[in-house]
Each structure stands twice: as structure tokens, then as C-alpha cells.
Amino acid sequence: MKIPFNRPYLTGNELNYIEDAIRSSQSGGHISGDGKYTKLVQQFFETEFHARKVLLTTSGTSALELAFHLLNLKPGDEVILPSYTFSSTANAVILAGGKPVFADISEETLNIDPKDIIKKITKKTRAICPVHYGGVSCQMDEIMNIANNHNLRVVEDAAQGVNAKYKGKYLGTVGDFGCYSFHETKNYVCGEGGALTINTEDERVIEYAEILREKGTDRSKFFRGEVDKYTWVNIGSSFLISDILAAFLYAQVENIDEIQEKRLLVWNTYYNALKPFEDKGVIRLPIIPEYSQHNAHMFYVLFRNEEIRDMAMHKLKEAGIFAVFHYIPLHSAPMGQNYGYKKNDLPITENLSGRLLRLPMYPSLQLGEVEYITNQLLNILNLNLRS
Ligand SMILES: Cc1ncc(COP(=O)(O)O)c(C=O)c1O
After folding, report:
1. Ligand 1 pocket, 187 CB below 6 A?
2. How many Cβ atoms from other residues are within 10 Å of residue 316's Cβ?
3. By CB distance 3.0 to 4.6 Å, which of 81, 140, 251, 343 could disulfide with 14?
């Protein structure tokens, strides 16, 4: 048996909508950005998620880059983010002219720890970037309070958090900006894609975001008939997703709940099978706090130490199961070290990242396969426990 770590889920309408996008380009439609399907997906998120404005982008990375550019950071301005995240979160800060400042995570959720955010605030701090790890929400009340007290902006990295909630509110709609990813490894996919949510009422921010996304031009206004020609008005880049990919994505978001239910079934099956072994203290499973309605993006296991984690990963691979570790903490990576961190600066991050293993997780994973995976894992652990 071979069980991959991820398999993108198809709802069945992807090819139909892509064909429609391509065909309609022959009769006045667009396969470039901001065509029919881009608008449909944006409207979907604005209506269903109650986001003030949603702009589809080429990736979660480009959504983050847009968000940090919108903050108008000055050289030396600091942004507090977890070290336990993807490189894009920190890169986006640096590309926008800021300096990433890494905070530790909480044991419970592996999300940024509000207590450590407070410790990292200086006169130069401008923003906080909570990353909702595995689609489990950060402590947003605490984070928003800190931001309000220190006049900081909040950019939510909700790359993994699409359709998950904090106290009933969709992730990505709590802070000033939210960033989603539709990369093939995420819950809703189109190959490569992302979205920026803008939650401010300030129309100038939305206008600036549209300009940044459209190569520094006011083409979005032109398409709406608000100006009679478009021109270069500011700096910008090319962050619009092709309507062919938006067509793929529309087939996914139309089935947003069906996909989530399938993922939750897999997640709960893993949880129930492994829970007795958590109770015995052999492993630790994800903790979902009461304030979080998660989206089953990820199922991970924490082992007692890195040696056992690596042994489990290799033995699972021998059994045809592709389980994978996750982030090497950014502060300890070659690029992160340029920012002056040393070992033990973020002890919880360093400890947990070495013990974590992600199990295969995708909507079409069969429950029989989940049983096979958990049985293999338990065999491996029993062997280890006996030795
Ligand atoms: C936390 C986090 N932020 C940002 C990204 C970047 O998203 P994308 O791959 O769509 O650029 C990812 C993707 O892996 C991620 O996990």
C-alpha cells in the first residue's frame, strides 16, 4: 500500500468551469485576472465570510506581500511573528522593508504566544502577524487587545485557516488583513493561488491594494468604468490570479462544506484511534481550544523526542505511508540567523518542532487507510516501548 501525504481533492466541476472560462474568452470574457470566476470567488468569500473586501492573488505568499506593503513600513519597523511558520511570512515582512521579530509559540496550539508578543514589543513595532497553525485559531482577543493598546496593525496568516473560525468569526476576517492560500496542499485548491482579505472600512486602503496588485495602475477602476483610461499611479506588482485558476477554485468553494466535512471525518477518526495512547502518555495529539472551530487542515502527532519522531517517520515510510515533519524554525534557519538569534531563544518552538510529525490528510483518504496508518504507527511505538 502507498499512501501519499496529500492528494488534491477534485469536486468534479473544475474542468467544466475551466472550459467555460477558456471558451468565454472567445466571446468577450477574460482568462487573465479579474474575469468572471475571479469575481465569483471573491463575492463568495465576501458574502459567506463577511469580509469587507477580498482580492484573489497568485498565491498565499503574494497575499502576504500585498498585506505588508499596505502597512507602509519604514526601514527598521518591526513585525512580530512566530518563528514556527513558512518562510513566506517572514519574507513578506522583509520585502516590504520591515524587520521580522520572532516570538515563541504556546505548547497547546503551536500558535504565537500573546505573552511573548508583549515581551517583544519595542518602540519600532508596527504590526503582529499571527499564523493560524493547522487551521486552529490563534488567541485573537488577546492579540487584538495588544494591537489596540500599542496601535499596531494585525495581518493574519490564515494560509492554512480557510473556513476555520475564531469564536464563530472566520479566520482572516478578525485582524486588519487576512491571507489565504489555495496551494495544492491546502484545504481548497487551484494549484497555486491565494487571497487577501481587507477588513478596514477605509476605501483608500482597498484602492491602494487594487493598485499594488495591478502593476501600480488604476486598471481596476477602469474596468469598473470609474476612469476613462488607466495609467501608472503608484508602485505595484503582478498579483492577479488567472481566471483559469479562479475557475478551478470556484468549483472548490462551491463545495466548501462538503470538503470540510470529509476532512473532519478523517481528522476525528485519527483522533479517536490515537486518543487512548495520548492518555497513556506515549504521544500528544492536537489540542483544539474552545474558542477555535478548526478546519481539519492537518493532523499531527507529537512524540517524546526527535529520535522517536524520526524513527516513526522512517518506519511509516517503509510501510508505504508518507508522514512528514514540518517547519524548521525560521530563527534557526540560515536566513533567520542574520537576525541575531541563538539556540534556546525560543525554547518551546525549538522543542515542539523537532517532535512533530504530520500524518497523511486529504478528503479522499479512506477510513480503512486511516486505520492502516494508525495501526502501523501503534506497532512502531509498541516496538519502541518494548525495546
Ligand atoms: C503559514 C503559511 N503561510 C504562507 C504560506 C504560503 O502560501 P503559498 O504556498 O500559497 O504561497 C504557506 C504555505 O505553505 C503557509 O503554510
Report:
1. no
2. 21
3. 251
The torsion region of residue 197 among left (phi > 0), alpha (psi -120 to 50) and beta comes to beta
d(CA 43, CA 123): 39
Contact 178 CB / ligand 1 (< 6 Å) = no
- The pLDDT score that the predictor gives to residue 383 is 60
What are the cell numbers at 119? 515581551
Pocket test for ligand 1, best of 5, 57, 160 (most atoms within 8 A of CB): 160
Separate counts of helices (H) and strands (E) for the chain:
13, 12
Residue 1 lies in a domain: no
Cell for 283? 504521544
Q: Indicate which CATH number applies to the domain containing 262.
A: 3.90.1150.10
Judge if 76 and 142 occupy the same domain: yes
Question: Phi-psi category of 232—alpha, beta or left, where left has phi over 0 and alpha has psi -120 to 50?
Answer: beta
Whether residues 166 and 279 share a domain: the answer is no
| Predicted local confidence at residue 387, as pLDDT | 43
The model scores a pTM over 0.85: yes
Asked whether 150 and 121 are in contact (CB, 8 A), the reply is yes
pLDDT over threshold 80, residue 386:
no
CA angle, residues 198, 132, 116, in degrees to nearest 5: 105
